[in-house]
């Protein structure tokens, strides 16, 4: 009971024992001898014995002495294990070799400290579980007492800073370094080690190489929050370790920074060490290890008081339980991942195709060659690096001033010189000016200053004069509109209506029988949104933190761009509304969609967007074909800015497509591993012949019980996965082993309420039947409890 409470709620042995004592005598009047010391010793012996038993050493003729390093650790069934869960000729997979990558996540935790209390005790399972062998570990560290920790990363990451800080006074252990399989969050055998002086490379190298000892896979991806620094001398430092700990030089080892940690690094790290751009990474995040720390952080206050050996055994036991609980949740985990990968792979591939269709074939080929060259050699130009912005702040101000001057000079018309097309253009420009004036009014406070009122009056007077000129041209080309204008003089404006609210009576507002003028086309101009994103990046990189004056100036320009974007959105929505009236069934609707506020953003992910890089979806305005009459110079500028987004879009599509195949391979490996484990336990049943028949019967029975658990785990996974694979028209080869499940859906238990039963129903018999059905169907609970049964 204590063991279960400890694994689930981190209850300490002291609290549990005191609770039992209070249950016995809550007012402390009885003279009861304390058995806390005996309980603690018995707990250590029982916990170690159970770990050995569950690892199969009861069936081993060599006994406990035959235990090797890491052998008590619960292994991950979803990771690739040659000879256990990999298919024949898996090493000849070619372009699909990424299906057999081992993904390793590495991190350190400085909450798992250990006090230097001068206590010495004997470790009952030395190096047999998650922790490395302490003797070998300490002998290695003695050679790196004064090793310098060099940092050349822009991030000044806390992990490297801590490496140069001595451990806190009174503590012999400053924390723990850990390695786990990043996709499934199971702690690796011999994947944990104590830290003495921060997160030093010498400590972490030993832990990583111990976790990879015996691995013969050709491809490994290691995620580490300081991978940009750690990976520089990894191969060089590895030569100083024993041959059995070294990785085969032919093995490809890629280092990457976890998805969320990478945001704190500089631009070179964010492209070179990003999992999003790494072939074979799928949708691996690398930050799953942080969830593992949340499992052990609640133990920090108790383990820091323990002697070294007990501390190791307690943490080892918690990681055994953590790994086992992760395994029992595999049916749900991989079902969820498959559904998401299937959906997102289709969505992002289609988005990438749509984006590619907006550019010329030669441009796409140029970009594709650039991406391939960078993947082959990272010394080549990086396609994911943002183009260098050569525009200065004053250049931006000058451009805005030119645009403002151009806008002011427009709409000076004369009925003798204006063509019909010019008439329609002037009408649209006047409509735009009305919107701008209304927007400016909405930004003013209710109580306006004298200057604001004077400026407003001048703008209204100018707009009124322009509308009066437009009326003359309007009557010239559309005399039928005379009845819709003023009843007196068509050129007069209503005296009780401001100029910004006067109806212009453009063709889209006419009755159907009067619409005879040519329809106007809508031309997409994405430049404001592109400049908007570039301007924000310019401020972030060059101005932020340099003083109020510069920040205020850039924010003023930023607000002007915001106004310009809103103005462009108004133009688009107004023009589209006109098209809906003029040509409601036109093919233009395939390209010109309804524009929502959430669609108005640049092609790239905004800096403040909480959406992960792999799930970011580009706005539709960047996925439709551009007009054919775009200026060549403007096209080249846009292409250079869009090159990065095209490369990122390709990477997103590729990572999700990889994820879809990786998840299916992981499903297959889980099934194969469980069946292999069942066969392994079955082979252990008859190994011992050195004791009496009764004991041998118990040893054999336990082996067959564990073999049955392996088969039941495989069946439980198959029951959950076969229906969703069938729905996707996928028939995996391993499904043939579960023919009785292929035509059945995942069962859902339904409990009948008392109101659904007949008055003549025998409730006692019905309840008994329901209990029997629960015992048959509730396999998950059986599997969760199976490892805890006594012989």
TrEMBL record:
<dbReference type="Pfam" id="PF18758">
    <property type="entry name" value="KDZ"/>
</dbReference>
<feature type="region of interest" description="Disordered">
    <location>
        <begin position="745"/>
        <end position="791"/>
    </location>
</feature>
<feature type="compositionally biased region" description="Acidic residues">
    <location>
        <begin position="765"/>
        <end position="791"/>
    </location>
</feature>
<protein>
    <recommendedName>
        <fullName>CxC2-like cysteine cluster KDZ transposase-associated domain-containing protein</fullName>
    </recommendedName>
</protein>
<dbReference type="InterPro" id="IPR040521">
    <property type="entry name" value="KDZ"/>
</dbReference>
